[in-house]
Amino acid sequence: MENSLYIGLSRQIALQEQMDIVSNNIANISTPGYRAHNMVFLEYLSKQRNAEKAGNDSISMVHDYGHFMNTENGPLRNTGNPLDLALEGPGFFGVQTPDGVMYTRAGNFQINGAGELVTGSGQPVAAAGGGTIAIPAEATEIKIARDGTISTDQGEVAQLMVVEFENPQSLEATGNGLYKTEETGNQSQNTRVMQGMIEGSNVNSIFEMTRLIDVSRAYQSTQRMLQNEHDRQRSMIQTLTRGN
């Protein structure tokens, strides 16, 4: 009698988490370098009580196995700003944080009051050899080559840390467009730095809006099923109680 409730609740929990992910994708449609996320579901078999009498030894429930990231590149938009950088290829920019080096695709960089190249949220952009990147205060022109080498009219400054990962799904989003991973990135071989451009989000807005509607309907349908099952069980208990 409880099996249908367990199955319905497992589906409802999974749908709620999927709804949260879809909503987050939609909220980041305009976020530079954002990568859409999705969920992976598995069937979970649970041993039943009184299995021999029931004639079946397990029930099937929905299990959230994990998330995966859409690794397709987003569209590139020309801005003309020399500090706007896009990556053409699978690489990620390195970013210095209090918790160590993290990674981002968002190249809407700027120069802070200390002359450091920083992300849009203020974290220092990492140099290829480690450390931060300082732009000379007297520099009047900034050029960034396809390999990430930064030069000004004062000479070469540094090279951007741009790395690639054998398993990009190991990257875990931490907020502000940053990702962390235990995997050691390799110096980029198949990624080019594009100056004066920004990579947009790779979220497909029409697909995500349609998916949000579908998930919402499925959640409501499951809620009705659970309520109907609850009402059925309550009615059955009341009938049995009156019979005694």
From TrEMBL:
GO terms for biological process: bacterial-type flagellum-dependent swarming motility. GO terms for cellular component: bacterial-type flagellum basal body, rod. Transmembrane segments: none annotated. Keywords: Bacterial flagellum, Cell projection, Cilium, Flagellum. Pfam families: Flg_bb_rod (PF00460), Flg_bbr_C (PF06429), LlgE_F_G_D1 (PF22692). It comes from the Bacteria. Residues 86-151 form the Flagellar hook protein FlgE/F/G-like D1 domain. Residues 5-35 form the Flagellar basal body rod protein N-terminal domain. InterPro entries: Flag_bb_rod_N, Flagellar_basal_body_rod_CS, Flagellar_FlgE/F/G, Flg_bb/hook_C_dom, FlgE/F/G-like, FlgF, LlgE_F_G-like_D1. Residues 194-238 form the Flagellar basal-body/hook protein C-terminal domain. The keyword Nucleus does not apply. Its main location: other. It is found in: Bacterial flagellum basal body. Belongs to the flagella basal body rod proteins family. PANTHER family: FLAGELLAR BASAL-BODY ROD PROTEIN FLGG, FLAGELLAR PROTEIN. This is Flagellar basal-body rod protein FlgF. It comes from Micavibrio aeruginosavorus. The gene is flgF.
